[in-house]
Amino acid sequence: MMQYVGLDISLAEVAICVVDEDGTIEFEGTAPSEPDAIADWLLERDVHAEKVGLEIGGLARWLYAELTARGLPMICIDPRRLRALTKTMPVKTDRNDARAIAQVIRVGWYRPVHIKSPVSQELRMLLANRKTLLVKYGDIENEVRGTLRAFGLKLSGRIASGHFEQRAMELVENRPRLAAMVRPMLIARSALREQSAVLHKMLLDAVARDDTCRRLMTVPGVGAVTAVTFLAVIDDPSRFQHSRDVGAHLGMTPRKYASGETDRNGSISKTGDALMRTTLYQASLALLTRSKRWSTLKAWGMAVAKRRGLRRAIVAVARKLAIVMHRIWTDGTEFRWTREEAVA
Predict the structure, then answer these.
(1) Distance between CA 33 and CA 228 in Å, rounded?
(2) Distance set, CA 125 to CA 197, 238, 319, 329 (Å)
(3) Residue 113 dihedral angles phi and psi, to the nearest 5°
(4) DSSP assignment of 179-205, as one string?
(5) What is the pLDDT of residues 99-122, one digit of tens each?
(6) Cα angle: 278, vertex 280, 284; to 5 degrees
(7) What CA–CA distance (Å, rounded) separates 176 from 259?
(8) pLDDT (tens digit, 9 = 90+) per residue, 135-158?
(9) 3-state secondary structure of 125
(10) Residue 212 — very low, low, confident or very high, per pLDDT cuts 50/70/90?
(11) Which of 170, 271, 307, 319 could form a disulfide with 252 if both were Cys (CB 3.0 to 4.6 A apart)?
(12) pTM of the model
């Protein structure tokens, strides 16, 4: 008889539920959130699982890889579809969540999540850490500007990063109490700037070593950050049967509601990776407003801007960029500026 296992993961413990092919619960329990502990728990009860399901989350990628290496048929599922089921539960507990995952795995009502390679996960960590440092850097700078403004000391306008600290200390030169309060903030800002530069250098080194990144950067508007982000998010281009599917995967296609006589399209779904979507939006804006050389893609985007406005055109071109970048990756080619060049 086939058995199906649901794992609900928390930081310390994993709730485990084993059901048979009819949905009857055979075993339930908990184990520490360690691969060996989970595998031993199943082995002690002689569970021969047809499928083992868990939701994507903090520890999910690590447990997925480790348990797969131990021979378990792991499936990582999208929690959005499962959430519709767990909302109907009057009592929500880890035990009930494990039961729901096991039943969803049994009936096949799930969408598997692609687990990225270790290289892609490292690149994503690099991008996330770099962004965090840059955001905190900006927050500290804005905090200094705002607090000094309360005393009539204005750090207005655009100030070069290297001159900001000097300018701030000049303003509080005759106010020792304010200077003592501002100085720690400026030291922290300087440290964040230095360390973000270290991570940015690591990002540029990764681009220089990767041929795919260099080919992606032949697309106008696409720089090092956009290329690395695309590699980290997509990971394996072969998992998309058609390049046009990438736009929908990144949440850049319209929502649709059709029921009875109602049929309407909404704004983009925004269901994909937010960092990738933001980066593509910035690349699209650069292509339409800063790229001096004309291309078929820019001409198409400007035509959309005339009909629907610049904001919609930026989103549309961002979706096109994702499609073009995926095709460049799979074909091993570079960006083609004109239709004639593409035909040739």
Answers:
(1) 32
(2) 15, 23, 24, 22
(3) -105, 135
(4) HHHHHHHHHHHHHHHHHHHHHHHHHHH
(5) 999 999 999 988 899 999 999 999
(6) 120
(7) 68
(8) 999 999 999 999 999 999 988 778
(9) helix
(10) very high
(11) 319
(12) 0.87
Q: How far is 133 from 130, CA to CA, in rounded Å?
A: 5
For residue 49, the cross-strand partners are 3
Percentages helix, strand, coil for the chain (3-state, rounded to 5) are: 60, 15, 30
- Give the Cα separation of 3 and 51 in Å (integer): 7
- Let me know: does 6 contact 100? Beta carbons within 8 Å: yes
* Six token digits for residue 25: 């619960």
Residues 6+ apart with CB under 8 A from 47: 3, 5, 18, 26, 27
Residue 235 DSSP code: -
Q: Compute how many other C-beta atoms are within 10 angstroms of the C-beta atom of residue 214.
A: 14
Residues 6+ apart with CB under 8 A from 333: 215, 327
Question: Tokens at residue 300, please?
Answer: 């198409």
